[in-house]
């Protein structure tokens, strides 16, 4: 039933990950006509594992990347399943599946498929469809009256661009796909292997190598623990050498795992120079340095920008004031469990 405060709108949701799925469900519940555009073959967003990363730019410097998911094979949840589900659709243990309280990534992907099937969301989704451009339709109205031109392309019809006009657009494309890279002297001329953790999947390709892992946050530590079983040496380069007691104990148990300060420079002969004056010759540098927000398809004429890794201006991390409610971003906050917070979308259908 359409909300008494608004007429039914035609809404485009970009992305069929957790945020996009719950946004689509809530919008449809309010009586809106919803189309979800998803570039991949199934729902899940980041949680749809992509084992094949061949052909992707190792450092992710291209404007548009072919690989969306940054999940590696062994990844498990760091939050318990009790808080990794939507409030009205709990992430319950299912017989014959991963029953651990902190399950592997596949279990969360299966949960999202269950959510999609339970609420009949699949009929709204166009899979294998990439969004080429989203821009305002020219007129002098305010956000409430704006319309949006959305250009999309289906993979099987590469030459055909579909143009549609919507009353509103919800951007739910995630923020763990476009690598953020450090600025290291000599990085562009270093001739050995460099990659970002975005395309790391398994440790075997690094067997018997000397690997420098840049960044000791969650992924840097996790991947280092895998590499230490196959690599000749693993050097974990961190901004601060003041580490947790737990990490210190882990390092002490491995003769081939070493903590290093930040990198000062890279040299063409393979040397990695650290700020304390020490150096080594490495085979590979693996950057575990996080991700940046990017919306290469979106043209807001400067009303929404990404500056110093901040998207804004956004009211409640969701609505750009001058374009609300016709444009919204769902899933922008990083240090939250996105599943409970995604219900903020209810605001969109009540303005």
Automatic annotation (TrEMBL):
Keywords: FAD, Flavoprotein, Monooxygenase, NADP, Oxidoreductase. It holds the Pfam family FMO-like. Its cofactor is FAD. It is an enzyme of class 1 (oxidoreductase). It comes from the Eukaryota. Its EC number is 1.-.-.-. InterPro entries: FAD/NAD-bd_sf, Flavin_mOase, Flavin_mOase-like, FMO-like. Gene3D superfamilies: FAD/NAD(P)-binding domain. Belongs to the FMO family. This is Flavin-containing monooxygenase. It comes from Salix suchowensis.
